[in-house]
Amino acid sequence: MKMEQINVEDLQELEFSENESQSFFDRISGRIFKQNRDLDVAAGMSSLKTTEALLLLQNYEETRQGWFWSTDKAGNITYITQTLAEVLDKSQAELLGTPFLELFVKPDDEVPSQRTLSFILAKQCAFNDLKLKAVIAEEDRWWAISGKPQLDKSGEFVGYRGNGKDITAQQRSEEESSRLAMFDSLTGLANRTSASKTLESTLSSFKKQKRTCGILLIDLDRFKQVNDTMGHLAGDDLLKQVAKRLTKAVGKRGEVCRIGGDEFQVLLPDSDDRGDLGKLSNKIILSLSEPYTVDGVRCIIGASVGIAISPFDGNTSEDLVHSADLALYAAKGSGRGRFHFFSEDLQQSAKDRKILEDDLRDALANDELSLAYQPIVNAKNDIVRGVEALMRWEHPERGPISPALFIPIAEEANLIKSLGEWALNRACHDAVKWPSKFIVAVNVSPIQFADEKLPAIVSSVLKKSGLPAGRLELEITESVFLEGSEKTEKMFADLKNIGVRLALDDFGTGYSSLSYLQTAPFDKIKIDQSFVRGATLPGSRNGAIISAIVALAEALDMETTAEGIEAMDELDWIRGLNVSHVQGFIYSKAVQAEELVRLVEKGEWIVTPNGPAKFRHDRISMYRKVRAIHENHCYSLMIRNISETGALMEGLWDVPVGTKFVIDFGEGQLAVAVVRRSDKQQQGIEFEQRLVSDGNGGLCTSRRVSPYLIAEAGMQIPNIPADFYPKPSYPTAVNGIPSFYTSKKKA
Ligand code: C2E
Ligand code: MG
Ligand code: MG
Question: Which residue's CA is the nearest one to ligand 1's atom 24?
């Protein structure tokens, strides 16, 4: 039989005892093994069949769909298909006698099966379709290799026989689909699956090397509104622009991933400096808050960032992401457009929030809510123009809880509508008892504003209480403009038809765009305290913006109110900018309804401003318990007035100037400080390393003591345990305040 007379169809007619689902190639090679065995066992048997099979194989080899190999017992090649030798740019003769293993690249972590092969060959086992890599002309080639050990008559191992085929194309397409599965098709960034894999592997290898790793979780503020009002295509375009800005802001420092709709994650290996991470977060927030052009329309969104650092805030990817999530939640809760570091109390506050939510459901029924009223004063003559109703919650166990904490909870828990309606009702019923010149302002949540029933509720409350509409002012924030313009315009028109006044609250914390002042019928703009406070910082343009708002407001016949004025210098400054009204502690805090009735009974209420001469920007007033360590002794002290460079500490008598302490702020935050001034039980201390902003008006140490170090010292928690340093036994105490102890003093 001539070789060319055999074709593939003929081959398929051969009977095979092997599994029919095997590939043709596997079947024929299986057949030849069997043939060979038969030959070994029954030598001299008619060789016609064998010759035919050999010819078939030869023909098959020539099709280049697969190849054969055999080795001796030492693993050196005794046969290799000619076509394969050609692929390897060698002759068959050159390959004979060389180790079979040398056809493949050396074992590495990337291709563990390479190691498996040498193991299998040594063990003399059979193997099937082992995926192996060869490098041919600098190109990666992938082969699937099968092999069977061969035994002689006495059962002695004599070598291997096997086959192989090229699976490079299949491997490439597998790699491509797994690459696609790791990327977000919209932005081209790594996706959630890839982000968590990278984080997991980074953390596990960093753990061995005791390295740190920071992650930032970034959530876009107001993205949903843009997506809802401008459409999903616009939303997609915006996300692409966000991804670009984010990648640029992070640069080579870390890897940016998109882990959900409008959530991104940045992985920052070897980053534990909170000063640096805070700066990077600010840079990201500023960059993402710059205006975008989408579909030719300008829009602004913002971003909040939660930061967690391994190993301090979590050792596993799950824990670290959970910590960063809590930090992000806190950042959003404290006003958005901020960053927040994870700290242990956030864990507690997440639990607290759930409890508060449950308690808030019963607060109205249990009569725990009340309204307090803070005067809004004419800045020129100190005459009170009206009051703002501020909700107060007296929790039966916890005492007073700030509305800054419970209002967002009420908004999320779908309680704000009933709380808001209650406040409107209460305020109107209180206000009818005051002289008719006093206006009452009530805060209206954006959720209430989006409710079509709001005008009907307002009308009904006015009717029931008998308060003239012109004496009620509704305070709303800029976020109501994001609801979609037609709905918003209708709501404005309906409320104006009733005759109530409208005030734009918290100006300077959101969009701060002057454009809607011209379109929305506001009677007043309230400039947020953070905007006022930021105005005196060097380089701030807030002062110029406030002047512009005042000019615009005057032209549009609107009043202006500056919120949060506490010190005389601020009042003078705000008066200089021609702001018409002031609301702040400099005049009065909020007072109870009963007291207010008494204060306004004369018909006119004039308040004299009273407060500190200057507002201190740099010092944060606080009262915080810390531990101060000196010479193996530990003191419990109070820290007041802390700044980046120093603090005032209290609670230790008679400490010499120049004394060095290690101040333990908790959670691994240790700062070395030197006493610069000392007066009886108070000392002014200077930190060796500046503290850094915690993103929320507080300060923290830039670095923390690594839990690795603490573990090495045999401690469990990232704080110095209370009994780690003995309390000083030096007995002298003045007024119960312990005296400072030093070995020198004792001597
Ligand atoms: P807001 O509407 O901007 O109210 C002004 C806040 O500034 C009040 O905080 C007030 O006590 C505080 N404040 C006034 N003067 C000063 C000052 O000189 N220094 C400082 N540091 N703060 C000053 P409060 O009462 O804690 O309320 C916080 C926020 O909670 C309010 O901010 C408002 O957004 C919300 N809120 C309060 N009551 C209600 C309500 O009945 N309904 C709704 N929806 N929100 C409310
Ligand atoms: Mg308000
Ligand atoms: Mg406000």
Answer: 403
Ligand 2: centre distance to CA 578 (Å)? 21
CA of 465 to the centre of ligand 3 (A): 26
Measured distance between the N- and C-terminal CA atoms of the chain, rounded to whole angstroms = 113
Total-model pTM? 0.58
Residues 299 and 443 in one domain: no
SS3 label, residue 381: coil
Residue of 407, 415, 570, 585 best suited for mutating to test ligand 1, as the one with most atoms within 8 Å of CB? 407
Gap between the Cα atoms of 340 and 95, Å rounded: 65
CB 697 within 8 A of CB 728: no
As a whole number of angstroms, the distance between CA 216 and CA 253 comes to 12
Extended beta strands in 651-705, E state: 660-666, 669-679, 682-687, 692-693, 699-700
Give SS3 for 142: strand
Q: What domain range is 711 assigned to?
A: 620-746
Q: What is the pLDDT of residues 344-401, one digit of tens each?
A: 888 877 788 888 899 999 998 899 999 999 999 999 999 999 999 999 999 998 889 8
Q: Which of 675, 570, 563 shows the shortest CA–CA distance to 617?
A: 570
Q: Nearest-CA neighbor of 451 among 422, 418, 429? A: 418
Please state the φ and ψ torsions of residue 512, each to the nearest 5 degrees: 55, 45
Give residue 444 CA to ligand 2 midpoint distance, Å.
8
Please indicate, yes or no, if residue 350 is contained in any of the structural domains.
Answer: no
